[in-house]
Amino acid sequence: MGRVEGKVVIVTGGAVGLGEAMARMMAREGAKVAVADIQDTQGEALARALPGAMYLHLDVSREAEWESAMQRVREAYGRVDVVINNAGIAISGPPEEQTLEEWRRLMSVNLDGVFLGTKHAIRAMKQNQPRGGSIINLSSIEGLVGDPELGAYNASKGGVRLYTKSVALYCARERLGIRVNSIHPGYIWTPMVEAHLARQGDVAAGRKALDAMHPIGHVGEPDDIAYGALYLASDESKFVTGAELVIDGGYTAQ
Questions:
Q1: pLDDT tens-digit profile of 55-94?
Q2: CB 140 within 8 A of CB 152
Q3: What CA–CA distance (Å, rounded) separates 152 from 125?
Q4: Which residues are catalytic?
Q5: CB neighbour list of residue 85: distance below 8 Å, 6 or more residues apart
Q6: Residue 196 has pLDDT above 90, yes or no
Q7: What's residue 55's pLDDT?
Q8: Is it the case that residue 198 has pLDDT exceeding 90?
Q9: Cα distances (angstroms) measured from residue 61 to each of 23, 37, 51, 57
Q10: How far apart are CA 10 and CA 85, in angstroms?
Q11: Quick one: average pLDDT of 146-174?
C-alpha cells in the first residue's frame, strides 16, 4: 500500500474500463485522483467512490478543455504528478471503405488527445517544486504489429509509441525530471472489447477466439494494465523513460 502516496494523478478516459481500473488502483495506493472523461454519470459516480477524488469533464481532443482541467486540478491539489493518457476509440473495417471523417475522429482522440495531454502535463509538471512527474501514454499491441482490419487504429497507436519516445528524450535532455513511457495492452476484457464482439455476433464465441490468440491462454483483466501504470507512476520506475511496457499475454512474442 502507499506506492503513490501523496501524488496527484489525472486519468483520461477514467470513467470505465482500463481508466476506471487505473483510477481505482491509484486511489487505493494513496494518490489523489482526477477522473477525466466525457461520460459524466459514470465518472462522477466513480469520483464519489474514491477518497479525495474529483471528476473533470474532458474531451481530450479540445485544448481549451485541457487548459481548464489542469487549472482545476492545480487549484484543488496544488500540483500534477502523473498524467495517464488513456482515452481512446477504435474503428475497424477495410481501408477503402473507411471515411476521412472516421479517420480524423479517431486521430483527434487517439493522437491529438495524447499530444495535448502530454503538452499540458509538461507545462504543469514544470511548475512542481521540485520539477518532475510521470506521463503514461496508452498505446496498444496494435502500435507494435499490424491488423488487416485496424489500419487507422494501428496508425494512431504506432504514433503514440514513437511520440512517447521523442518526448521522453526531450524531457531527459532538458533535465525536467519528467519520465514518459507507453503501455501496450493486449486484448483486455473491457466494455469496449465486449461491445466490439457484440457487434460481430456471438460474444462467448468471440471471447473464446480472443483467448486463443494469446499464448498465455486468455485475455487480460483491467487490473493487469493498472498494475503496469502503477509501476510507471511510482518512484519505483525512476530510471525508466522512453520505454514501452508490453502487457499482452505473449501476443507480440509470436
A1: 999 999 999 999 999 999 999 999 999 999 999 999 989 9
A2: no
A3: 31
A4: 153
A5: 12, 60, 113, 114, 117, 118, 135, 136, 137, 138, 160
A6: no
A7: 98
A8: no
A9: 21, 11, 28, 12
A10: 8
A11: 97
CA dist 98 and 107 (Å) reads 13
**Residue 218 φ/ψ region, left for φ over 0, alpha for ψ in the -120 to 50 degree band, beta for the rest:** beta
User: 94-106 pLDDT, tens per residue?
Assistant: 999 999 999 999 9
Grid cell of 57 as nine digits:
469533464
Q: What CATH number belongs to 8-191+223-248?
A: 3.40.50.720
Question: In which band, very low, low, confident or very high, does the pLDDT at 26 lie, cut at 50, 70 and 90?
Answer: very high
The answer to whether residue 202 scores a pLDDT higher than 90 is: no
CB contact set of 30 (below 8 Å; sequence gap of 6+): 1, 2, 3, 4, 5, 6, 7
pLDDT in tens, 117-153: 999 999 999 999 999 999 999 999 999 999 999 999 9
- What DSSP line would sit under the chain, residue for residue? --TTTT-EEEEETTTSHHHHHHHHHHHHTT-EEEEEES-HHHHHHHHHHSTT-EEEE--TT-HHHHHHHHHHHHHHHS---EEEE-------S-TTT--HHHHHHHHHHHTHHHHHHHHHHHHHHTTSSS--EEEEEE--GGGTS--TT-HHHHHHHHHHHHHHHHHHHHHHHTT--EEEEEEEE--B--HHHHHHHHHHS-HHHHHHHHHHHSTTSS-B-HHHHHHHHHHHHSGGGTT--S-EEEESTTGGG-
Residue with cell 477514467: 14
Residue whose C-alpha cell is 502530454: 118
